[in-house]
Write a structure and sequence with these properties.
The protein is of the alpha/beta class and about 290 residues long. It has two domains: about 5-160, Rossmann fold (3-Layer(aba) Sandwich); about 170-285, N-(1-d-carboxylethyl)-l-norvaline Dehydrogenase, domain 2 (Orthogonal Bundle), CATH 1.10.1040.10. About 55% of the residues lie in helices and about 15% in strands. It is built from 14 helices and nine strands. It has helices at about 15-25, 40-45, 55, 70-85, 100-110, 125-130, 140-145, 145-155, 165-195, 200-205, 215-225, 235-250, 255-270, 280-285; strands at about 5-10, 30-35, 50, 60-65, 90, 115, 120, 135, 155-160. Helix 4 packs parallel to helix 5 (about 100-110), helix 12 runs antiparallel to helix 13 (about 255-270) and helix 13 packs across helix 14.
Length: about 290
């Protein structure tokens, strides 16, 4: 039986959407999911969820968004959820332009949508294991109403502030995370060209003052050149483009951001857009005279 009789709608069934379903279904929620790709709906059904139309998902009391872009969030909320008139609580897990999300919340809350920004720090694998950190932005009363769903999705979470602040925190965290990936990739390449065994070196690096969680999550993938995605290159590039826009709007130069963005762009040009974002090491490997 669904927890507390609740049915949760899920729009967007990519890597993160599937990870969120992995949290909700074992917790006893009935999950109605929608994606423009029917194959992803089939994956949801194999997990124990139900593929559904967008109109049926819009009837759910709580709707979780795991779509790709700010444009898609705005479209779903304003052109589907608001007109449906069901007074949904909307949990937006997508990484978006925080200024546009704040403006969206200001537009739709008076029209009956209780909008809560809920991006998560962590790869899809980490989120599916309950290791992601939820970054909540919006009305604390809405967060309290959705607490049973938030408990299932994000056992660890922080209420950052108003709508938009969750996304701002997510971008700043993803900047650090992306630069940690870049630093690890460069360090592994450097150790290898110095003649060190990369696997042995990674073990030493994990025990050193240079340690970061990225070493556990991405180090083996970089060494083995196993790039099955838990976070796409193109997705990281989207995030870094958002960071660049936010920094530029505030007159801030972030040189390491620009370097990592250029590496991701090179990976996309090399046909690695759908690889795991640890594939940034491939571009560093290519930059050898």
């Amino acid at each position: 039986m669904a927890a507390e009789g609740r049915t949760v709608g899920l729009i967007g069934l990519g890597l993160m959407g599937q990870a969120l379903a992995t949290r909700l279904i074992p917790a006893g929620f009935r999950v109605l999911g929608h994606d423009i790709d029917p194959a992803k709906g089939e994956k949801l059904e194999a997990m124990g969820g139900e593929a559904a139309s967008l109109a049926d998902v819009a009837k759910c009391g709580i709707v979780v968004l795991a779509v790709f872009s700010t444009d898609q969030v705005e479209d779903v909320v304003e052109n589907t959820l608001v007109p449906a008139g069901h007074g949904n609580i909307v949990l937006c897990t997508s990484t978006c332009d925080p200024d546009r999300i704040a403006a969206l919340a200001a537009r739709v809350v008076p029209r009956g949508i209780r909008f809560l920004e809920t991006p998560v720090s962590g790869s899809s694998g980490q989120v599916s294991r309950g290791e992601g950190t939820g970054l909540i932005g919006g009305d604390p009363k809405t967060a309290a109403e959705a607490a049973n769903v938030l408990d299932a999705l994000f056992p660890k979470r922080y209420h950052i502030g108003k709508a938009g602040d969750g996304g701002r925190a997510k971008l700043a965290i993803n900047l650090i995370l992306g630069l940690n990936r870049m630093a690890l990739a460069e360090g592994l390449v450097f150790a290898t060209v110095l003649g060190l065994d990369p696997k042995a070196f990674l073990d030493v690096a994990k025990a050193s003052a240079a340690y970061s969680q990225v070493m556990d999550i991405k180090g083996g993938k970089m060494i083995d050149r196993e790039f099955k995605a838990e976070g796409f290159v193109h997705q990281s590039l989207k995030d870094f483009s958002l960071m660049r826009e936010q920094a530029a709007a505030r007159g801030q130069t972030l040189p390491a951001l620009d370097l990592n963005k250029s590496l991701l762009e090179a990976c996309v040009r090399a046909g690695e857009a759908d690889h795991d974002n640890s594939a940034v090491i491939e571009e560093i490997r290519r930059r050898r005279k």
